[in-house]
Design a protein that fits this description.
It is a multi-pass membrane protein. The protein is mostly helical. The protein has one domain: Amino acid/polyamine transporter I, CATH 1.20.1740.10. The chain has 15 helices and four strands. The strands form two sheets. Strands 1-2 form a two-stranded antiparallel sheet. A two-stranded antiparallel sheet has the order 3-4. Strand 3 and strand 4 (302-303) form a beta hairpin. The longest helix is centred in the last third of the chain and has 39 residues, at 325-363.
């Protein structure tokens, strides 16, 4: 296998992760947190932070003690190929499932609010082709695109947060623990399903020019935390936790009530920019990482078409299967997000233990 040439500095990796995971933290998991914890959802976010800190230390330990080629390169050098596949298969399935869920959720949102009269097949084909081009461009250009897209995404986010200030009632965040501690602990499941995606940086390590340091991970974790806390507290303060928990897209509903004076309204097309930016980068990146894990045919930062095309054929085949919206969201709430927490915790802990075992073996 040709040695990979690192092409990204850690700051670029951070921007790439913020944009790709931002859609999950800022949009997709908010309804589940509200449904599980209600008004105490923001408390779940705060209580989840110590778990994130512990996970961050373990991830840093794994990164620090892995070779520049990455953790999975270390596994291939030390383990039998069958064991590497056994350990890597759940990661591949997680990447594929995450990309699929992001795509389906995006299509549902587009058809509900913007493209109700456009056939679903047309939207699916156009968006799949767009994501295909993102994956084919390679991780270097994904990071460059993230650096260009993310500033506007952040500006629009701060814009909606400050513009709707007069509609927020902070008293709706209290009292806390009115239903006991159980809802808070239940909400932590969904909060951590977003926060623990910081694990993806282990998969991106082979493309990093410089060492990923602890402060990079701490800052990244704090940003993930803010991406959840912002729209969650805003939804509760603007709509009340009862109404907010009934909404599928409370973050988007904040755009729909936005008004500046009497004549400036309907600025929700800015949300379309945010959603599409996060979705195409997230899907393109996850399919790229999936191809990176399953093949040894790598050329620095790009993947060959003979790898990408079959992946997208499988991906498109899954997308063409019609799924009822109710059961899709029920699947996310009851199965996928809880499974994601267990899976990511397992991967983070076991990866650190494997690296520790290798270091002990090597020191003898």
């Amino acid at each position: 296998m040709k040695n990979l040439q690192p092409v990204l500095i850690p700051r670029q990796l951070t921007l790439l992760l913020i944009l790709s995971t931002g859609l999950l933290n800022h949009v997709m998991i908010i309804p589940s947190i509200l449904h599980a914890s209600g008004r105490d959802g923001w408390i779940s976010v705060i209580i989840s932070y110590p778990v994130l800190i512990l996970a961050t230390f373990l991830i840093y330990y794994t990164l620090k003690n892995s070779p520049p080629e990455g953790f999975f390169h270390l596994l291939r050098a030390k383990w039998n190929k069958a064991f590497v596949w056994l350990f890597g298969l759940p990661v591949c399935l997680f990447l594929l499932a995450s990309a699929y869920i992001t795509f389906v959720d995006l299509i549902i949102w587009l058809r509900a609010y913007f493209l109700a009269d456009v056939p679903k097949l047309v939207i699916v084909i156009i968006m799949t082709f767009t994501c295909f081009l993102i994956t084919w461009s390679g991780v270097k250009y994904m990071a460059i695109a993230s650096g260009l897209l993310l500033p506007l995404v952040m500006i629009f986010g701060f814009f909606i947060a400050f513009t709707n200030t007069n509609m927020k009632d902070p008293s709706l965040l209290f009292p806390i623990f009115s239903d006991g501690f159980y809802p808070v602990y239940k909400g932590m499941i969904y909060v951590l399903s977003g926060l623990l995606e910081i694990y993806i940086i282990i998969l991106l390590q082979p493309f990093s020019k410089g060492k990923i340091k602890m402060h990079h991970l701490i800052i990244l974790g704090l940003i993930f935390l803010g991406l959840i806390m912002g729209p969650l507290t805003a939804s509760i303060m603007e709509f009340g936790y009862v109404e907010a928990s009934k909404m599928r897209y409370p973050a988007y509903e904040q755009w729909r009530i936005l008004g500046i004076g009497e004549f400036i309204t309907h600025l929700d097309f800015f949300a379309l920019y945010q959603w599409l930016s996060g979705a195409v980068i997230r899907i393109g990146l996850f399919i790229f990482l999936l191809g990176f894990l399953i093949t040894s045919s790598k050329n620095n930062y790009r993947m060959k078409l003979r790898v990408i095309v079959p992946l997208y054929v499988v991906f498109l085949s899954l997308l063409l299967v019609d799924i009822d919206t109710f059961y899709f969201y029920r699947f996310l709430y009851e199965f996928f997000f809880p499974f994601a927490v267990v899976f990511l915790l397992f991967q983070i802990i076991v990866s650190a233990l494997i690296v520790k075992a290798f270091s002990l073996t090597g020191s003898r």
